Each structure stands twice: as C-alpha cells, then as structure tokens.
Amino acid sequence: MRYDLAVIGAGPAGLSAAVNASIRNKNVIIFGMDSPAISKTKWIKNYLGFETISGEELNENFKKTLASQDVERSTEKVQQIYAMGDYFTIILKGDQMIEATSVIVATGIELKKDLIGEDKFFGKGVSYCATCDASFYKGKEVVLIGYNEESVEEANYTAEVVDKLTYINMYKENPELNDNIEVINGEVPVEFVGEENPTTLKFKSGKEINADGFFIIRDSSKPERLVPSIKTDEEHIIIDKNCHTNIRGLYAAGDIAGRPYQINKAAGEGQVAALDAAKYITLVKEGKFDKETW
C-alpha cells in the first residue's frame, strides 16, 4: 500500500506532523511508541497555554488531538527507508514493506554513544534487527544487547532459531526471557573486536564474550543507518528552514534535526515539515512537481 505521508516517530514532532498533514486531507501513517522522555517528566512549566502540566497529561492531550484525525498508527519498528524517486520504500520487520510519497523523520535522538567498533562491523556481524537476521545464525552462538522491551521480544524469538543466545541486560531487573537464554547483568559493553567480522564483545570490567553474531536493540539508531545517503552533522539530520533534508520528499523534525531539545521546538518543526510535505505531495499527485525548482 502507498500512503501520502509516513511519519517515523510518535513524539511531539511526529504527532504534530501527523495531525497537520491529516487536516490537509493526506493519507498518513505514523510509526512509533509514546515518548518516554515526555510521559515520565513530572512537571512541564514552559509549554505555551499551560501554566504547569505533567508530562503524562501533556502526552495524553497530544494523543487525543491525533485521535480526532484519520491517521493510521503502527508500533512496528522501521528498519530502513529508501528513496525511490517519486516515492519511498519503508522496510519493516520480517521484510515487510510499505510505500509513501513523502516521509518525515521525527525519531528523536539516541543519546547513548555507539560501542567501539559498532560502525566498523555494522552489516558484517552487528545488526539492529534480530527477527530480520536471526536466520543467518542457525546453529551458531549469538549475543543480543537489549536496552528496551522490544529487545526481550527479539531475544525470545532469536533463541528459538540459534544454537545459543546470551542476553546482555541493559533494560531492567528480571526481564521475561525464555529459560534457554543466558543473561548477563551488571556489565557494561564497550567494544567489538575482530578482523573482517566481530568475534568478541568486551565489557568495561574487562570481561569478554565470544559469539558468531551480535544484535543491538535500542529505541533508535543513527540517521545514516535508517536512511542511506542522508546528510548529517554528527548525530543530527541537516535541514533547511522548511525542514527539507538533502533527499527530495524527505523531511526531519524535532530532536533528530538539532538542538534545543524542547517540546515547543519539536511540535513547531513537525508542523512546518507537514505543511511543506502536504504541498509536495499534492504537486507530485497532480504531476506538477518541478524537480529543478523544488
């Protein structure tokens, strides 16, 4: 199925973008879970229109606004986005795909630093989707570094496919894992070591573990891993005043597009991106899009 607009991220930037595009009669799908950074904030005292409001209440108000619009929501994790000319292909888990005329990336920012060697071995033994790549490790030993609830689901699935799975628990005490999964608690992973492919994961304590493959399951990943050929300035996607990226039809908004990391700024950029994307989508549909001037 092809949507007019796919919004990646369900924080204030993503929700704002989805609402504003839907109001303009665009067919919108938004991917993502609620933003924990907002919902877990006790009090917010600088959001226009509210003298003081809890993060949880503000987030619920955001969702109520979205509920009044005809917007499809999905909690599926987006693996990669490919520009195909006049549309985008969005890859989900299990090689599922959807298409969209335009995309707004509003994933927020991952403040955790990469492990040493993570970039070097990306796609060569380090992966971010266990359900996508577990089949490559049948009969082998795998390590999964888990930072969230999704990592528990991924670990339980992968353990049924591989010979041995070790879960590095960066998530919470006593995650609900299958009995055949070895769990390592209280260790901080710092580095992948190997030649062409990673063979060892080193920890801050000096402990090491060997494996044939490694999975890292975080809430988000670097923009260039999500969108090949996207231009970035360190951890941020580069945008212009209309939230355009260097890829035609692709926009970015919120924390992923730069500081300050503020709710007001994110919601505003989501609106700017949506308004421009709506204009772009209409021109493409009507065959009036001018590649030379846009």
What does this structure look like?
With 294 residues, the protein is α/β, with parallel strands linked by helices. The protein is 26% helix and 26% strand. The chain is built from eight helices and 17 strands. The chain has helices at 12-23, 36-39, 55-67, 118-121, 130-133, 149-159, 223-226, 263-285, and strands spanning 2-8, 28-31, 71-74, 80-83, 88-91, 97-105, 126-127, 141-146, 164-169, 181-184, 189-194, 198-203, 208-210, 213-217, 232-233, 236-237, 250-252. Strands 1, 2, 3, 4, 5, 6 and 17 form a seven-stranded mixed beta sheet that branches. A five-stranded parallel beta sheet has the order 7-14-8-9-10, covered by helices on one side. A hairpin with a 2-residue loop joins β15 and β16. α1 packs parallel to α8 (263-285). The protein is globular. This is NAD(P)/FAD-dependent oxidoreductase. It comes from Anaerococcus cruorum. Residues 3-270 form the FAD/NAD(P)-binding domain. It holds the Pfam family Pyr_redox_2.
